Amino acid sequence: MDNNLIIGMPAGSLANSTRGGNLVKFLENSGFTAKGYEAGGPTSFSTVKFLFGWDGRPQEFGTQLSLNELDVAIAGDDWIEERKLELKIEYKIDIDLKKILSLKRGNVRLVGIVDEVTKENNTEDFLKNFFNKDKKIITVVSELPYMALNWIKNKMISIGLKDLASTWSVQKYKTPSKIEKGILIYETWGKTEAKIKNMSADIGLEITQSGSALKNYGLKVIDEVFSSEAGIWVNQSVLNNKTKKELLEMLVINLYGSINAESKVLLVFNMPSDKKEVAEAFLSKHNLYADEPTIIPGSKYAQYTIQVETDNIEMPLAKVRYELVKLGARNIETIPILSSIPDMRSILNF
């Protein structure tokens, strides 16, 4: 596999064409058509011989990257952080992983949740009142147990409960407790909110997007613990391999091109030759081209091609077209862009 870049392809929401920002279409727009991925694998890249798809759960990718089983992985920040914390806390191993590109999709929040009847509105106050009632052990539920442990432990230390926070246990849900005091973390396989609602735990760390499920369960958020999005993660050792680093650069540049194009279109229009100066003054004033506008001169008209940001609040696409028409532009065509790559230096930061 020395001549291939082994890429972790995440099962779950990112593989669903209606969730996670449609990763399948995104890869296709980047020039990496993935066969078999959306159907559950195995994933292959038939038109790109240097990529080898390794289907897996994003929960495992952090460990696989650290063992060099994967060269690169598409994974959320939360699951990478969870594996880093687990290896550090349980095995005293620090793993050197680096996020080299944000994919601008798969955004979620990790929030602290309690029953809505709880009077406290932040974790510190909740913990103070909880342990002031002569309680010695707090039960926490989460799909990300080590992130939950790190969160609760640090909060307890901040309010003067360092000794109590030094005793903890991470266990499968509802297995017999191994401790009599401190922090008992139960790892869940989903539906964390139901366990809080049904009073099977004192507090939880939950993954959420909109928060609607939490409201439906009658829960409230008392802490914003972590923000996560999908990104490209690598083991730093890959960057020391000349062949794989070049393949990685090729991958990242093309992925970035698709991301960069998602808020852009091309406008192609004809402008009378006698309006050339006023048209170019308008384009320059509103930064509607990069190095210089693309112009094809003609006897009576010149054809211009410019790139327009569709999410520009100051100069939205509709206004650009309107202003161009007022200046004399004709036959304005709006063309979607699949990829927009500025230059190598602005993309590669590794």
Q: Which regions are unreliable across 5 or more consecutive residues at pLDDT < 50?
A: none
Overall, the morphology is elongated
Written as H for each helix and E for each strand, in order along the chain, the element string is EHEHEHEEHEHHEEHEHEEHEHEEHE
Beta-strand level of the residues, as a percent range? Answer: 25-35%
Strand order of the largest sheet: 7-8-6-9-5-10
Main beta-sheet annotation: 6 strands, mixed
Overall structural class, as computed from helix and strand content, comes to alpha/beta
In terms of topology, how is this protein built?
Blueprint (H helix, E strand, L loop, with lengths): L4 E6 L12 H7 L21 E6 L1 H9 L5 E5 H15 L5 E6 L5 E8 L7 H9 L5 E6 L2 H14 L3 H4 L2 E5 L9 E6 L4 H6 L5 E6 L3 H5 L2 E10 L1 E6 L6 H20 L2 E9 L3 H10 L8 E4 L3 E9 L7 H11 L2 E7 L14
Helix pairs in contact: 2-3, 3-5, 4-5
Short description:
By secondary structure, this protein is an alpha/beta fold. Helix content is 31%, strand content 28%. Strand 13 and strand 14 form a beta hairpin.
What would you note in describing this structure?
The chain is an alpha/beta fold and 350 residues long. Helix content is 31%, strand content 28%. The strands form 3 sheets. A 6-stranded mixed β-sheet has the order 7-8-6-9-5-10. β13 (294-297) and β14 form a beta hairpin. α2 packs across α3 (77-91), α3 crosses α5 (145-158) and α4 (123-131) crosses α5. The chain is elongated. The protein starts with a strand and ends in a 14-residue tail after the last strand.
